[in-house]
Amino acid sequence: MAEGVQSSLFFETPEEIYARVFRELKPRTPVPELRVEFCRFANADSFIRLESGRLHVRITDLLSGAPAPVMEALAHILVGKLYRKPIARMYKHRYRLYLNRKDVRRQAQLVRQIRGRKFISGPQGEYFNLDEIFERLNARFFDGLMGRPQLGWSRGRSRTMLGHFDPSHNAIIISRILDQKALPALAVEYVMFHEMLHLQHPVDHAGLRRRVHTRDFREAEKKFPQLKEAKELLKRL
Ligand SMILES: [Zn+2]
């Protein structure tokens, strides 16, 4: 082997990487039996658990081709979390940087699309019809040109997530808490309008931070005439 060309890192199996990281984080504890598995998850999550003295790591198969340093970073994150050890920023950074790579993001989205089954209710709520609201806003603010995505009500009545646009399923989901008789349509309209703007303004992935509400987005949102009243209504939910 050429001197200094490869570190041992590149010749380790995933189990060996986890064993090494384990020794680093828990030097006084004997390394438990380890099993690392790549699973066909619908997203980029990975899991670790300790079961009858055995460490079981399940990694998204999105990472099965990831470079060893990325696998090592994930090992630090997972083992660190399991034993509540501080995780060095370097590892978090390295892992995030990899997931944020354009090709990796693209693949993650494809996988979500293909594997992720999503429950999407129909547009008809008890009091509001989301198709009607969408088309009303479409005509009023988008010259009727916006293609209608799937529209549905959330299962739960979330106050913190009043709506979201899911690009991998091309769906806008509105919180069921807005489907209330006493609530003026304006509140639902505003939430829908906000989500429609997400269809128009893609997320800015420049650098590490995802910028969801860009300046253009904020400007466009101001065109909603009763923005203030709508926000007031939502505050009082
Ligand atoms: Zn938003």
What does this structure look like?
The strands form two sheets. Strands 1-3-2 form a three-stranded mixed β-sheet, with helices on one face. The protein has a three-stranded mixed β-sheet with strand order 4-6-5, with helices on one face. It has helices spanning about 15-25, 70-80, 90-100, 100-115, 130-140, 185-200, 215-220, 225-235; strands spanning about 35-40, 45-50, 55-60, 150-155, 165, 170-175. About 20% of the residues are buried. It has about 240 residues and is of the alpha/beta class. Helix 2 (about 70-80) crosses helix 3, helix 5 (about 130-140) crosses helix 6 and helix 6 (about 185-200) crosses helix 8. The longest helix is centred in the C-terminal third of the chain and has 16 residues, at about 185-200. The protein has eight helices and six strands, in the order αβββααααβββααα. The termini are far apart. The chain is elongated. Bound molecules: zinc ion.
Attribute tags:
single chain; 237 residues; alpha/beta; 3-stranded mixed beta sheet; 41% helix; disordered N terminus; binds zinc ion
Describe the structure concisely.
This protein has 237 residues and is an alpha/beta fold. The protein is built from eight helices and six strands. A three-stranded mixed sheet has the order 1-3-2, with helices on one face. Strands 4-6-5 form a three-stranded mixed sheet, with helices on one face.
